[in-house]
């Protein structure tokens, strides 16, 4: 158990040593968080309770000896209280507010870990209520509607503000079946704003926080919410992202399309044409999805592209013989693959997942 020794170092008089110690603690906590699902408490929580580690980390946070140690202290507590209420109201308020502030940090590593910390905390209702404090839907929508203008510095500031809002949306919605807040966000204009960004901005200026924010609207979901998304004509903006250089952005786009296609097929006759076939074909989606399928080296993107075909060509022939041969052969190979992980990709129902981090 490395924690007692590392926690003892948090009180060292040399400011560098507590910084190294708290970062070491965070790295161990991060590894531990990967061994359980997001909805389960952190496996090391009880260990910290025994050695009074939570209090000592919060003490380090409050002392604010350096930006580095303060950030890592907040992240540690965010990970430690995964799916677990921060019972101390002062600690809960201070840590969550500081984590929300860190979403604006200039460093991507800090923002990504902060997003995860808030996502973990949001699995508990009391923590989530605190996160949602001052969560103004219209203000978020207005922020996302701001177009790039002015100098490079001004554009960077707009991006920073918008990414922070997107990361917060992701943290709140990820993995949670809270359909009402999704509807409220859609009605506030947030999905419209994201789709406008996808369809109009230079691809290199569309970073992953934007696509992650859209993705969590597509799963968990239901038919009514997906029909709301369909009303926004999402296919062309999402298909445009297939040309993005960031593979993670492409993955978010194809999974979003897949989830929408799957959900809108529910409740309709299996013997009928998919209700969105004409929409996605009109947007050039058949050709673009097949092109993505052919060129990608990413296993998940390839399988999901093939699954999209299986869904959208429901009860009708894939007339292009090469396309038909390639897609069906790939799906069959995944189902028959001796590796369980690959086989599950071939068998997966499209609406049952979001891509891993």
Structure commentary:
This protein is mostly helical. It is 67% helix and 0% strand. The protein contains 21 helices and no strands. The chain has helices at residues 3-9, 16-33, 45-50, 53-63, 67-80, 89-102, 108-121, 125-131, 137-144, 152-173, 179-187, 190-200, 208-218, 223-231, 235-240, 247-265, 277-282, 285-295, 299-312, 321-335, 340-347. The radius of gyration is 22 Å and the shape is elongated. The relative contact order is 0.06.
Give the helix/strand layout:
Layout: H1 3-9, H2 16-33, H3 45-50, H4 53-63, H5 67-80, H6 89-102, H7 108-121, H8 125-131, H9 137-144, H10 152-173, H11 179-187, H12 190-200, H13 208-218, H14 223-231, H15 235-240, H16 247-265, H17 277-282, H18 285-295, H19 299-312, H20 321-335, H21 340-347
Give descriptors for this structure.
357 residues; mainly alpha; disordered C terminus
Helix content: 55-70%
Helix-strand pattern: HHHHHHHHHHHHHHHHHHHHH
- Which overall shape is indicated by the principal axes computed on the Cα atoms? elongated
Unreliable segments of 5+ consecutive residues: 343-356
Alpha-beta content class:
mainly alpha
Beta percentage is under 5%
Number of helices: 21
Cα-atom Rg, whole angstroms?
A: 22 Å
Mean pLDDT: 91
Q: What is the rounded distance between the termini?
A: 28 Å
Major sheet details = none
Number of strands: 0
């Amino acid at each position: 158990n490395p924690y007692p020794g590392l926690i003892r170092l948090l009180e060292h008089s040399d400011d560098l040593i507590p910084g190294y110690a708290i970062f070491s603690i965070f790295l161990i906590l991060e590894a531990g968080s990967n061994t359980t699902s997001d909805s389960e408490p952190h496996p090391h929580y009880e260990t910290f309770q025994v050695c009074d580690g939570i209090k000592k980390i919060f003490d380090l946070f409050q002392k604010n000896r350096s930006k580095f140690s303060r950030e890592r202290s907040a992240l540690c507590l965010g990970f430690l209280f995964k799916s677990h209420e921060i019972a101390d109201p002062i600690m809960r308020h201070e840590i969550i507010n500081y984590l929300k502030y860190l979403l604006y940090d200039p460093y991507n590593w800090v923002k990504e870990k902060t997003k995860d910390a808030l996502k973990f905390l949001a699995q508990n209702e009391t923590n989530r209520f605190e996160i949602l404090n001052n969560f103004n839907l219209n203000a978020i929508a207005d922020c996302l509607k701001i177009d790039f203008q002015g100098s490079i510095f001004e554009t960077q500031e707009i991006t920073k503000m918008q990414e922070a809002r997107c990361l917060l949306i992701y943290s709140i919605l990820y993995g949670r079946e809270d359909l009402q807040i999704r509807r409220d966000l859609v009605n506030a204009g947030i999905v419209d704003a994201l789709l406008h960004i996808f369809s109009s901005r230079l691809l290199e200026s569309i970073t992953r926080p934007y696509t992650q924010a859209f993705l969590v609207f597509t799963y968990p979901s239901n038919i009514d919410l997906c029909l709301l998304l369909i009303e926004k004509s999402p296919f062309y903006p999402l298909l445009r992202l297939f040309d993005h250089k960031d593979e993670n952005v492409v993955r978010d786009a194809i999974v979003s399309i897949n989830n929408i296609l799957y959900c809108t097929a529910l409740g309709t006759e299996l013997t009928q044409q998919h209700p969105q076939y004409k929409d996605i074909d009109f947007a050039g989606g058949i050709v673009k999805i097949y092109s993505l399928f052919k060129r990608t080296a990413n296993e998940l993107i390839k399988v999901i592209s093939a699954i999209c075909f299986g869904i959208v060509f429901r009860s009708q022939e894939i007339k292009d013989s090469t396309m038909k041969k390639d897609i069906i052969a790939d799906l069959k190979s995944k189902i028959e693959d001796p590796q369980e992980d690959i086989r599950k990709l071939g068998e997966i129902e499209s609406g049952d997942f979001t891509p891993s981090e």
